[in-house]
Amino acid sequence: MARHWQRANPGASAPPGPERELAMKSKHVGVLMGGMSAEREVSLKSGEAVAEALQDRGYRVTKIFVDHDIDRVLRQTPIDVAFNALHGTYGEDGCIQGLLELLGIPYTGSGVLASALSMDKLKAKELFRLYNVPTPPYYVIDADQLGSLEEIHGSFGFPVFVKPRRGGSSVGAGRANDMGELQGRIEEATRFDRSVLVERFVAGREVAVGLLDGRALGAIEIVPKGTFYDYRSKYKKGQSEYHFPARLTPTRYKGVLNIAERANRAVGATGATRIDVLVTEGENEYVLEVNTIPGLTPTSLLPKIAAGAGYDFADLCEAMLERASSVSQLDEPDEAPPQAPEEGAEELRSDLD
User: Fold this and answer.
1) Any catalytic annotation for residue 184?
2) Where residue 226 falls among pLDDT bands split at 50, 70, 90?
3) Considering 107, 231, 235, 311, which one is annotated as catalytic?
4) Catalytic one among 37, 84, 118, 169?
5) Where are the domains of the chain?
6) Active site includes 194?
7) What is the pTM of this model?
8) 31-35, 246-250, 295-299, 302-306: lowest mean pLDDT where?
9) Deepest of 63, 201, 296, 303, by most Cβ within 10 A of its Cβ?
């Protein structure tokens, strides 16, 4: 594990020693999986793969299947750290992160704010624009605005790409070439979110960049056999071809890594992330989104990128676990604050009454 730490932390004085690795392995790891989003099945596959990899490395692991009673389950399961393998709503959008903060449980991945911003495609794009990260033109339409679709779309043009504002794995997403298709695509997307992002279609290569601690591990090019990299292409073996490193000139490859790191900083993401980029035949690259909890299934992109950078799957999981943190714990004072005198407390209660 030390060699991977050095690669991800160039210039640092020393990697974590055997004592720290032993301390990590003494902790009880809860792998959060399942969840309540449309990406539940993907999360179950990610969680199973992570749990198996960590168990094989000697960690004490409990698989925690997330549902509406997760608050009770976490309070009754004495874990020391949570490995978040949830995808989509409630798992990737800051909700589970907030609960873990309240419970004082360190967890993998980004914090509450970065998770929420990255999951919300509108807010992420607004930050991209603020930080001069190129992203395709777009607008947002809500379900109750469909009657005004032609007016809202105006001269935006076609083709466009439609996707739920808060979602992942290309669920509910698709291309529209005219107004009739656009209405149908929006109606489909509103099954998963009342707010829908309509984005100008950009022809280009689909490239994903994997990051660890904000530093790019590499970029992989995806060539789906279908019309685009949809749910089937992502999770069914044989439906896509992958090229690592991405087939770009050295200068352009470096530029893609740079733009991914800039997008990651724009939303404040931490830990292991994946940035989706479109690379055109010209000189333009466009960031589509930041994924704060990338898939960890056998066909997922981040493990493929990490493998190209020298991490096997268990190495990647350990690296993610090593970076688990909790804002509430980081902000906790070294000593308990002084207690108010009993008399003062009685006066305060009296004033409140």
Assistant:
1) no
2) low
3) 235
4) 169
5) 2-109+321-326, 137-200, 204-317
6) no
7) 0.84
8) 295-299
9) 296
Which residue among 205, 221, 274, 326 is the active-site one? 274
Catalytic residue list contains 289: yes
The C-alpha atoms of residue 12 and residue 6 are separated, in whole angstroms, by 7
Give the per-residue pLDDT at 172. Answer: 81
Residue in 289, 315, 318, 326 annotated catalytic: 289
From 52, 131, 107, select the one nearest 271 (Cα to Cα).
107
Buried-state track 57-90, b at ≥16 Cβ within 10 A, e below 16: bebebebbebeeebeeebeeeebebbbbbbbbbb
Active-site choice (21, 34, 39, 94): 39
Backbone angles phi, psi at 19, to 5 degrees: -65, -40
Which of the four CATH numbers 3.40.50.2000, 3.30.470.20, 3.40.190.10, 3.90.550.10 does domain 204-317 have? 3.30.470.20
| 271 part of the active site | no
Asked about 291 being catalytic, the answer comes back as yes
The domain at 137-200 falls in which architecture? 2-Layer Sandwich (3.30)
Fold topology of 2-109+321-326: Rossmann fold (3.40.50)
pLDDT digits (tens, 9 = 90+) for 147-199: 999 999 999 999 999 999 987 656 788 999 999 999 999 999 999 899 999 99
Q: pLDDT tier at 10 (50, 70, 90 boundaries)? A: very low
Known catalytic membership, residue 107 = no
Query: What's the pLDDT at 38?
Result: 84
